[in-house]
Amino acid sequence: MRNLKLHYCNEQQTKVSHPRQMLQEPEIGLETSYIATESNVYAVTATGDAPLKVIADLPDIVAAEFLQLNNVICVATRAGEVLLIDPETLATSEGTYCDVGIERMAWSPNQEVVAFITSSHNVVVMNSTFDVIAEQPLEAELPVDQQFVNVGWGKKETQFHGSAGKQAAKQSTDQPTQDTQDLLNKEVNIAWRGDGAYFVVSYVSGGRTFKVYDCEGKLQHTAEKSSNLREIIAWRPSGNWIALPQWFPNKSTISLFEKNGLRHREIVLPFDLQEEQILQLKWSEDSDILAIRTARKQEQQQRVYLYTIGNYHWYLKQVLVYADTDPVAVLHWDTRMGAEQTLHVLLESGKQLVYSWAFDVEPSARQGIVGVIDGKRLLLTDFARAVVPPPMSQCVLQLENYINAIAWDDQQLCVYTCDQRFHFYELKDPLLQQPEPRGSIDLQSTDGQLLQLSNFTYFASNGQLLATTGVQGNTRLLWLQKSDDCYTVLTSVSINGLVKALSRATHNIRSIYAHTLDSGKTYDVSLTAENTFAVAHAKQFESSLQSGLVTLRSQQLLQLGGNGPQRIAEDVTSFLFFGTYLAYTQMNSLHFVDTENRQHLATRSIERGAKLVTAIDEEARVVLQLPRGNLEAIYPRLLVLDQVKVLLNDRRGRYLAAMKLLRKHRINLNIICDTNVEKFVARVDVFLREIQESQWLCLFISELQDADTTAMYPQRSNESPQRLPPGFKFEQKVAYICGLLSKRMSETPSAKERARFRLPLVTVCVRVGDVNAALKLIRQDLEHPGQEDQYLKYLMYLVDINELYNVALGSYDLGMALFVAQKSQKDPKEFLQYLNELKALPEDYRKFRIDDHLKRYSSAVQHLARCGEEHHEEAMEFTRKHGLYTVALSSYKVHPEFHRRLCVAYADQLRANAKLENASLMYERGGELQQALLSARHTLDWQRVLVLAKALGEQPLEQVALSLVGPLQQQGRHLEASELVKQHVRDTEKHMEVLLEGHLYGKAIYEAGLQGGDILAEKIAPALVAHAGQMHNSLKSDLQLFLEYKQRLLDIRQRRANGADTEGGDGDVDIDEVDLLSDTSSMQSSRYSGTSRGTGKTFRSSKNRRKHERKLLSLKPGNPFEDIALIDALHQHVTKIGQQQQVVRDTCKALLQLGGGEDTLAQALQREFKTLLQTVESALDEIWIPELVGSSSGSLAQHLTGPNVDYMALQKEQRYALISPLKRFKPQLNAVDWQHEILQ
């Protein structure tokens, strides 16, 4: 679908007449090139203003080559001389010499090997230093075992010969006729393959043929016998075809041979080789373009045909015509990298024409129509209606002459032919009709200046044309206007540099952007009211692009921007601008950019090498052409969703078209409501009215999801969040939308509409989980009996048949259950007998049996409770089996006796599960007071025990209370024990004894003060002093133990730090303890890097795990994890110290209440505890260091990133990971007001 578009044609003067060969230096930007004639080699500049420099003056120059490695020119003469000439110093040295003379010389593309054909028809192959590699006669044949063999696949007379007819079967092609022999050109030609591995030699041996040699001069293949071959030969640089002209009685072709000499395919020429002789055949360096130079003697002109291939079809893209007054002398494709599609044409007068070509798709302004040039045919295809694979097309426009360029303007088409004539057509819609001609007109030529025009821009409103032509490196921009019988130049302007591209501004038809090649500048050219050009550097661009022109540089750099162009991407192969999107392709990906905020929205993979052809907004279609030429139409999600939004946001709400588009492209139908929920809710009636197919409504309802599906697709950054209707949440979207649709569909008064909405309503019921309602819906108000089966069949697609049968059975409607079972695949033996049994049962018991069958046990108990007393035993057994005591107790409240039995049974179960408190309550409800008392006694609920004991009356309350004192004291509930003795035993001594045993000295002093006597001095004071002394000693021991643990921990850390400095790691870890480390973070010391990492034990049992945990937390000196054990012990110790604050305060207060005799002891106790707290608080930060606190998965991960892994930090963290997370942080000492001011 690509045309060969002329970017510019630059006319230069070389001042070298009768050139025969052109040489170029390898780098772009060097202005010097070399032109060889028959007797001289000249150095010329691109500007042509410098005087000619003669590099060599030799007679009969056969060939010349610029050798890049040595920066010299190699010249071969017919006399046999091969000279190396330095173009700078003109120093000459002899390369080699052939005494018999040289007929042809050709260097390999890599310039490592050179091939000569001597005048005696010997093939000589030399290396770059002119050492002979091989030499053999051109007539030498291949060995017999390598020659072609006729395997006898039928006679020629029996084979099909196509358009040649039956006479071709009788003609012999072994040898040319005598007339052809006389016309044969005897010259020999050489052509190299692009990689320099092979070369081919065309020569005459009875008839024209060729041979293929490798770079070492060995004969590899000989061509099959073919008649009427011409002497011109060219090997495609990519290596797959060898091109030679060949004449047939009914056609003339460029025959394409494979390396093995077999004819592969052909290019049918539009002329006769006997009337129009081929003078030169040249492939472009990228193998994309084949240039054919011919001479037509009758018309006294020369032509250059440019062919390209696509989808196995050869397109004639350009025909350049030159008069015989100044014929073409040399055709040369640029050999420099990056300029492979630049053609140099040297005329006999010394004029040089430089054509720069590029492949470009030329769609019409109305998106979809693309024109492809193929000789005299213009192939038109409207991709908005059909994707026609090339070389076919939707419409063919046939002209009388060869087409070189086309230009569009709305529905108008301008065609420029090789005879410098413009043809105008009006396109029809649809394109199935032939375009209507609107006349043709010639181009007025003055002084040969308009030899080649490029960059056509057509303005259909006034018939004017804009074009460019280049002279001496500058460009003239021409505004052409129609006169009576030709186009004339209305005005022109000169622009420095070669204009490579023109682009029409969409905001002003009289404004043009021109981009130059050399400087890379973009000019804003506008036509004033006086029909003159105004040229300025483009600084402001169209507002629709937000100050942006889209440019694709020759280095495949895509830019978008005005004052400061923004680089969009590199390695871009094609781009296309449509709507607000810029689409561009890279090697194997397609990208979309929002031009408003320049945000990359989407990327998708495409076939390698695919390029953009066109895009159709209405269809959301993008057409790509693949490297081999075939087309592929894709529908990117981004464009489809944009089109869906346009349809949904239409004021009429085109929901039907939107749903068709979504179904066609298999996009989630939730987009219909998620795009604009508020608008969808407001227009739900329009939605139901447009979607007439009930199946489509069912499909929409079944695809609803509790999520915002628009988040799955690209979002523009400038899009504002949508407004949601009141009460709507995406997490409850299914219920909301289904409720809305159900309400609207149920309210319709029309019977026809109710029938249309029957299936959607069934779908709504299934989506909200009410299958029972769906079953009822399919059986009510049916117009035809057969509809019930149809609706049920649909319901069976939505719900599993077994579940549907259970729902029908669970509705207690046996008729419905039978109806569903009959339509399923169930065996009648499975359900008929069961349904008949149910039918014979009473209603409540039938419901119980159904609920039991469906495992709805709670409902079954409720129905069984209505069945009467005869089913109490069954109810008891059923309740015990399924543990439904709470449901049964609620259901059997009206049956007191059975209710008590249920309470006792429930209490038995609770007691079996060690829930004694609840069991005691249930026993009490069931009348089992003795069991309730026992259960309460086990929980030491002494208040309930006393209440229940009094109710039983079997034992005095004092005795019961006294029996509870000992167990309460064992559990540390001394205060409750004292209250129990005081209230119910009334034994003063026992009461005081309980208080002293619980160290409740404040309470004891209070009781002694109320009672009076010597109890305080005789019993309380001695016990309190003894307890205070014991506590003082305990605090000293706690301080000593804390300091000991702390010092041991600091010593261990110091040893580890010293060991890491000397040994580079932790050398104390025992290999047997590695299994205690985390599997995800365990690291071994380098000391054990060569041994196995584990012991092979899994330690999966809890017993072994606890054993290893005890081993881990062992405080025994020498334990490999002694530091971890010490941290664990210190945390517990500090926590215990913090909990003693209130105990110390109460003890000191009790000592102060003794009357002052024990103030010294109280003061010493308070001072000792204060010292302990201060020591602990000051050492917390020293024990719980930041490394210990920061040991977590996040900090562990940071040591594993980067080029250098911190193995020491990693090893520390994996050790600290063994500590409980709570104990990695220092304990919090919640300070209370525990000190007495009078003791300080």
From TrEMBL:
Residues 845-1002 form the ELP1 TPR domain. Pathway: tRNA modification; 5-methoxycarbonylmethyl-2-thiouridine-tRNA biosynthesis. GO terms for molecular function: tRNA binding. One of its GO terms (biological process) is tRNA wobble base 5-methoxycarbonylmethyl-2-thiouridinylation. InterPro entries: A-sol_ELP1, Beta-prop_ELP1_1st, Beta-prop_ELP1_2nd, Elp1, HB_ELP1, TPR_ELP1, WD40/YVTN_repeat-like_dom_sf. It comes from the Eukaryota. Signal peptide: none annotated. It comes from Drosophila guanche (Fruit fly). Residues 1085-1096 have a biased composition (Low complexity). Residues 372-613 form the ELP1 N-terminal second beta-propeller domain. It is found in: Cytoplasm; Nucleus. Component of the elongator complex which is required for multiple tRNA modifications, including mcm5U (5-methoxycarbonylmethyl uridine), mcm5s2U (5-methoxycarbonylmethyl-2-thiouridine), and ncm5U (5-carbamoylmethyl uridine). The elongator complex catalyzes formation of carboxymethyluridine in the wobble base at position 34 in tRNAs. Residues 1081-1113 are annotated as: Disordered. Residues 637-838 form the ELP1 alpha-solenoid domain. Residues 1014-1183 form the ELP1 three-helical bundle domain. Belongs to the ELP1/IKA1 family. It holds the Pfam family TPR_ELP1. GO terms for cellular component: cytosol; elongator holoenzyme complex; nucleus. This is Elongator complex protein 1.
